[in-house]
Write a structure and sequence with these properties.
The chain is of the alpha+beta class and about 200 residues long. The chain has 2 domains: about 1-75; about 100-195, hypothetical protein PF0899 fold, CATH 3.30.2320. It has 4 helices and 4 strands, in the order ααβαβββα. It has helices spanning about 5-100, 105-120, 135-145, 175-195; strands spanning about 125-130, 150-155, 160-165, 170-175. The protein has a 4-stranded mixed sheet. α1 packs across α4 (about 175-195) and α2 packs across α3. The protein is rod-shaped and about 160 Å long.
Length: about 200
């Protein structure tokens, strides 16, 4: 082989070697580019679905909180209804008991205590008293016993107690059973809460 052939062979080998390097470089770049594109596509799909999953989780969490809130409010509403019914039953029982006591010595003592309370708060032994027609005699007897001068006005409905005022009308007290029970209503609720 001649020297010229040797130079040509080296030249061809150099060109082939250079081309092989370039092809390998392109192949590597192409592989990296393909991997990058595949990664970007996968990341895009994951991001798209991740935000949808996040939104779905938020909706589920909100729905759960809404249901929990509604359940809690329903339980609270039922508890308040129960308490209200309980208080009403207690008040009805007290009214029924006072009705049963009407005309007894205990009822007379109750009316007497009402007159004494009225005298104390009004600060006078002269009172204008409003009572039920059926209680007129009891009020007169209790006032006489307590040495209180009373001007009695009667009403047809049952008051189960008295309404008293000073003679000049500047001070007035409602000592009827319904008023006393309405003032005690919150205390009765408090007792019911402790019992339940």
């Amino acid at each position: 082989m001649s020297q010229a052939s040797e130079v040509v062979r080296k030249l061809v080998e150099g060109v082939v070697s250079k081309l092989t390097e370039e092809i390998n470089s392109w192949r590597e770049n192409l592989r990296l580019r393909a991997e990058t594109e595949l990664y970007e596509a996968a990341k895009s799909v994951i991001d798209k679905h991740a935000s949808a999953i996040d939104e779905l989780e938020k909706e589920i969490r909100l729905e759960r909180e809404f249901r929990l809130y509604n359940t809690m409010m329903d339980v609270e509403r039922r508890r308040l209804e129960f308490m209200e019914n309980f208080v009403n039953k207690v008040i009805d029982a007290v009214i029924e008991r006072v009705k049963q006591l009407k005309g007894t010595d205990k009822y007379r003592e109750y009316i007497k205590a009402c007159l004494n309370t009225a005298r104390y708060y009004i600060g006078s032994d002269e009172l204008v008293v409003k009572c039920s027609q059926s209680d007129k005699d009891i009020v007169e007897a209790a006032a006489s016993e307590l040495k209180i001068k009373v001007m009695i006005e009667t009403v047809p409905e049952e008051l189960y107690g008295i309404k008293a005022a000073s003679v000049d009308g500047k001070v007035a007290l409602d000592l009827t059973l319904s008023t006393r029970l309405s003032l005690l209503r919150e205390k009765i609720k408090g007792i019911a809460v402790r019992v339940s």
